[in-house]
Design a protein that fits this description.
Layout (H helix, E strand, L loop, with lengths): L4 E3 L3 H10 L3 E2 L10 E3 L12 H6 L4 E4 L10 E3 L3 H15 L4 E5 L4 H12 L5 E3 L9 H6 L8 E5 L7 H9 L3 E4 L7 H4 L2 H17 L3 E5 L3 H6 L5 E4 L7 E6 L2 E6 L2 E8 L3 H14 L4 H10 L8 E4 L4 E5 L5 H13 L5 E6 L8 H14 L4 E4 L1 H6 L7 H10 L6 E5 L14
Length: about 425
């Protein structure tokens, strides 16, 4: 077979190729036969190097942006691989006529997304963002996975800098929107809380300018004010849904008229994630019975509020992510359980920039005020508390020498701290 070099001059040409080869690959280790490999590059890696490998493994085409790796038939040279991926996703989204629910917020995005998906899939073919693919790469990849068989989509959108939600909205083009809440997270990238507020509000602005609809927490005065004059339905205690917590130890259960919503979720703050799923389910005509069943079926995973019964302790593992807002909510909820043998293992909250010292001090103050026993882990906590452990390795060694038994343990920290590694020693 001879050398073949293809230069795509328009996005519409590439879209025709995508329609015949709808599987998108970005990792040469996980190739789908007949797909298109996008050779994404970053600061420390060059995806172009893997184009040949991807084609050998079965990809029909490889999209590259470096001429020197054009050595195989069906190589497509573009100016910028990432922008090409994003533009392709935009084109595909414009062809879709289904409702798309865009969801963002400081906390609760992923849990809410999974609950919503569970509720909607009882009567609809629902696509939802897989895992945490919610950024400038993950959102286009998600959009490109939606096909003609889907009736509705739920697209999670995360942000760590200004204008990112607006950018993601212009790719995903949501018809419906949710901001779960607005709190302190990624302050290093946003500059300050006002930066977080403005960025999250970009979703509301998009919905407003495109005549879409919002689902708004009626209890959140800030969200209520921001959503004024935009078509919406409401959830929360102040809404007409009439949901109230009847128990929360350890799992939150909710009374809803004649129904009892049982869940596998921990913490009073989960009320709003559940209420949102109910609100969206009702909007899309899902029956009350099915909503209750589907909420009960959802079980957290991937280090998100998982309950693990070890040989010696009960562990509540919430080590996927942490910021000042989620950390405070989780600690306060844990304190409200009134465990006689409660213990907190808390890791650093990352990406707080100049606010880090103050925010970590505030968390310590909350723990002391609530008279909770705690172990602190990480460089940031070490800056403000002399008895903190520097990292998870030191934590493991500490627990080996000082065994912990008969405790209910909450583990909470940012992903980068890897606190889940302590579980085998508890």
């Amino acid at each position: 077979m001879g050398f073949c070099f293809i230069l795509i001059m328009s996005n519409s040409d590439l879209y025709k190729i995508y329609l015949k080869n709808p599987h998108i690959c970005t990792d040469s280790r996980n190739i789908k036969s007949g797909g298109i490999f996008f050779a994404l590059s970053g600061e420390h890696f060059n995806g172009n190097k893997f184009a040949l490998e991807a084609i050998k493994k079965g990809c029909s085409f490889a999209i590259i942006d470096d001429k020197k790796y054009n050595r195989k038939p069906n190589t497509i040279l573009v100016e910028n691989v990432l922008k090409t991926l994003q533009d392709l996703a935009k084109t595909h989204r414009e062809k879709l006529t289904i409702p798309v629910i865009g969801i963002t917020g400081t906390n609760g995005k992923t849990t809410s997304k999974e609950l919503i998906k569970n509720v909607l899939k009882s009567c609809m073919n629902c696509y939802a963002t897989k895992g945490n693919l919610n950024n400038h790469i993950g959102v286009p990849l998600s959009i490109l996975e939606i096909n003609s068989r889907h009736d509705i989509a739920v697209i999670e959108m995360g942000a760590n800098h200004k204008n990112e939600i607006d950018f993601l909205c212009n790719i995903s083009k949501p018809t419906h929107g949710v901001i779960t809440n607005i709190g302190k997270a990624h302050l290093k990238g946003f500059g300050d809380y006002d930066g977080v507020l403005k960025t999250k509000n970009e979703l509301y602005n998009y919905i407003k300018h495109n005549n879409g609809m919002l689902f708004v927490n009626k209890d959140d005065e800030q969200l209520v004010n921001l959503s004024n004059e935009i078509s919406q339905e409401n959830y929360g205690h102040k809404s007409n849904l009439e949901l109230r917590i009847i128990s929360n130890k350890p799992f939150i259960n909710i009374k809803w008229g004649e129904y009892i919503l049982k869940s596998n979720l921990i913490g009073e703050y989960q009320y709003y994630n559940i209420a949102l799923a109910v609100c969206i389910g009702k909007h899309f005509k899902i029956s009350n019975e099915k909503i209750c069943i589907q909420i009960k079926k959802y079980k957290p995973k991937n280090n998100r509020s998982q309950i693990i019964n070890t040989k010696n302790n009960v562990v509540i593992l919430d080590a996927y992510n942490a910021n000042p807002s989620s950390m405070k909510a989780m600690i306060c909820s844990f304190a409200n359980q009134n465990y006689d043998n409660g213990l907190l293992i808390l890791g650093d909250m990352l990406e707080l920039g100049a606010y880090s010292i103050n925010e970590h001090n505030l968390i310590i103050s909350i723990c002391k005020k609530l008279k909770l026993n705690f172990i602190l882990v990480g460089e940031e906590f070490s800056k403000v508390h002399k008895d903190s452990l520097e990292g998870v390795e030191e934590l493991c060694e500490f627990v080996k020498k000082n065994p912990i038994n008969n405790k209910t343990i909450l583990i909470k920290g940012s992903r980068g701290i890897s606190l889940e590694l302590i579980v085998p020693f508890l």
